[in-house]
Amino acid sequence: MKPTHLSPVAALFLLTLFAPAGTHAPAQTTASASAPTHRTPARTKEASPPVPPSAWNDHPRLAIILVIDQFRGDYLDHFRADFKNRGFNLFLQKGAYFPDCYYNYANTKTAPGHATIGTGSYTDGHGISSNDWWDLARNQDRPVSSVEDEHYRVVGAPDSSLPSNLPGAPGTAPKFITGSSPRNLLASTVGDELRLATQGQSKVFGVSLKDRAAILPAGAAANGAFWIDPISGYFVTSTFYMAQLPDWAAQFNTSARIAQAEQEANAPANTTEFYDLVGRTPAANSYELDFTQALIQGEQLGQRNVTDLLTISLSANDIIGHQMGPDSTYEQQMVDALDGQLDTFFTWLDKNIPGGLGNVWIALTADHGIAPIPSTAALYGLNAASVDLDKLSAALDYALNMKFSPGEKVEYILPHQELPYISLNQSEFMKAGINEQEAESAVQLLLPDAVASLAPPAPEPPPSDAPAPAPDSANAQSAKPSETRLPPHPVLFRSYTREQLADGPLPPTPWGQLLAHSYSPNGGWYVMVIPPDYQMETLSSIQTTHFSPWSYDRHVPLGFYGAPFAPGLYRGRIEPVDIAATFAALLGINQPSASVGHILTQALKPAAEVTYPKPVPAPRARHTSTPHRAATPAPTPKAHR
Ligand SMILES: [Zn+2]
Q1: Are strands 386-387 and 132-133 parallel, antiparallel or unpaired?
Q2: Distance between Cα 111 and ligand 1 center (Å)
Q3: Which of 213, 406, 526, 577 is deepest in the core (most CB within 10 A)?
């Protein structure tokens, strides 16, 4: 666990610094007894603009960034009639709701989405381009994940999940699971800036079922990030953060909560597929939110006179969304269940954060949207073909061998590709004396023909004297296209080399900006491949996905709840990078290091109208007790980032 201890002198200084400013204290300022050592200097009575609340004077106890994985921007409107109580309606009725929020980059995957939310920057700023990528300097056998880090080990997984204990494991199997860290994150997060600004007094945590979604939005200075061991469902962390799980987390893991989740999900007891079987059901969201409550209590978040920050990424919607698609009844059931689960969580916050929900900010958003299942889109006549990446790689390798090494079978294209990037085997190109520019340009030139070669043979046209098909009333009702249309076939829309993304030339248009935002220096040589809208790579165990620059993948909701936000519906394009920028501005701290977000001033109340409830002091609070954890040694630098 990262230490948060300050010397008594520094603590006294901070208590003074953080004492509520007289200007904004509401009428019942007697509650300033909650900061007994505070001595605010008398303020002049001259008329002057109100001092805006910030992390330095008046501030929320807890700021939450709530990310729903794969929650498209149209869902809140689509399912609005189902919502009850204070779940999503907290944002739709009592908060500032932005229905037109779009990511402004072309690589709409989970890891970059979460990094974007935390850092207020895109891939060209934070460096996270995808969930996994090839980095031949680190691993020549497989792509590395965006957060895996061989310098660290997973903490808290049960012995039964360790590789050496798995049935059939060789004797040489390790007795640990490789850990994770934000090593590839090249920018600070709003949580990092809050930790720096408060000299470590603010605590920052991240929670998700997925490591990348817990780690990346929270940042390198976070006190901790927790995700699940996919086998057992135990919440785990990494030695990057702490040597062992806190007691409250270990107790959660050994409580009956896992069994309850398995039962709610109709999964076998003690399943070894917790992520897949429980993760795709609404039971996973309540499981995750219960862990979050344990974290808030265990770490005493929101209990002190500083702002703590928590990023929560709810993963279940993504798992079922890939399998069943955005238009399935499963999606609606998940959203409706989540509405009730959020109501329960917000009500719990209201009771357990001093001063209630009035002392909490919550931003609601998503890491990306989702495409319709290609066969569904094709039913309406869209050219929703899928691209077989294995066949595409083979076609490219064939043509590259013809060009650079006739008669040989060099594998210039690496295996295990995921759009939108095709990774090149730079070792093989370099052996052949081909530099990056030549290699990427060659692939780019060969791509159109390679993609076209994947098209199914066009059906024979009907003879000119054949009778027209009889009108089909069912077809007419569903606007089904004419049966004489060609079947969907893959096409290349555009491609860009890594060097083009890094240095141009890119068109001086919104499209060019979107591409520039997709560049990452992490990994090796690559070419970005963009199929037309509604096309995607051929999928095996899932039905649809997200990865593209098209609107359905970039559209996410954005809602804010909290004292500074003027409730209302705000039309107009905004971006997820605006969350970190707006939170930083409201906290009076620096924006994250690479932030390109705008402050959403249209939804902010005048400073004079922003007040925070002053918590009633606990009746039996003992003078000697401190609400936060016991003193721990000063932070020691981490060896590797
Ligand atoms: Zn995702």
Answers
A1: unpaired
A2: 7
A3: 213
Burial class (CB in 10 A: 0-12, 13-18, 19+), 368: buried
Q: What is the dihedral of CA 596, 602, 606, 611, to 10 degrees?
A: -70
User: From start to end of 209-340, where are the E strands?
Assistant: 224-228, 235-238, 308-314
pLDDT for the residue numbered 8: 44
Which residues are CB-neighbours of 291 under 8 A, at least 6 positions away? 207, 226, 235, 249, 252, 257
- Ligand 1 center–CA 316 separation, angstroms: 10
CA of 78 to the centre of ligand 1 (A): 20
556 CA distance to ligand 1 middle (Å):
11
DSSP for residue 72: -
Among the listed residues 552, 574, 444, 430, the one whose alpha carbon sits nearest the alpha carbon of residue 498: 444
In DSSP terms, which residues pair with 365 in a beta bridge? 67
For the record, the structure tokens of 134 come out as 């090839």
The angle, 0 to 180 degrees and rounded to 10, between the axes of the packed helices 329-352 and 316-324 is 170
Written as six digits, the tokens of 408 are: 């040989």
Residue with tokens 């007994």: 36
Q: Is the pTM higher than 0.70?
A: yes
Distance 70 CA to ligand 1 centre (A): 5
CA of 318 to the centre of ligand 1 (A): 6
Nearest to 285 by CA among 70, 92, 90, 115: 70
- CA dihedral (601, 604, 605, 611) positive or negative: negative
Question: Distance between CA 421 and CA 515 in Å, rounded?
Answer: 12
119: exposed, middle or buried (Cβ count in 10 Å: 0-12, 13-18, 19+): buried
351: its two tokens: 């009771």
Q: Please answer whether residues 586 and 54 qualify as being in contact, where contact means their C-beta atoms are separated by less than 8 angstroms.
A: yes
C-alpha of 452 from chain center: 34
Whole-number pLDDT of residue 607: 87
Please report where in the chains the tokens 């593209």 appear, as a residue: 548
Spacing, Cα 314 to ligand 1 middle (Å): 9
Distance (Å) from CA 207 to ligand 1 centroid: 14
| Residue 367 CA to ligand 1 centre (angstroms) | 5
**Rounded Cα gap, residues 126 and 104, in angstroms:** 14
Distance 260 CA to ligand 1 centre (A): 25
Identify the segments of the chain with pLDDT beneath 50. 1-44, 469, 471-476, 621-641
| Total residue length of the chain | 641
What is the model's pLDDT at position 478? 55
Six-digit token pair at 148? 């895996």
Any idea which residue has 């240095």 for tokens? 503
In whole angstroms, give the CA distance from residue 105 to residue 122: 7
Query: Alpha carbon of 527 to those of 424, 435, 509, 513: distances in Å?
Result: 8, 14, 21, 17
- How many angstroms is it from 274 CA to the middle of ligand 1? 18
Q: What is the whole-number distance in angstroms between the Cα of residue 46 and the centre of ligand 1? A: 52
Question: What does the block give as tokens for 340?
Answer: 């009730």
Residue among 248, 247, 245, 274 nearest 261 (CA):
274
Q: What is the pLDDT of residues 450-477, one digit of tens each?
A: 999 998 776 666 666 655 545 444 444 5
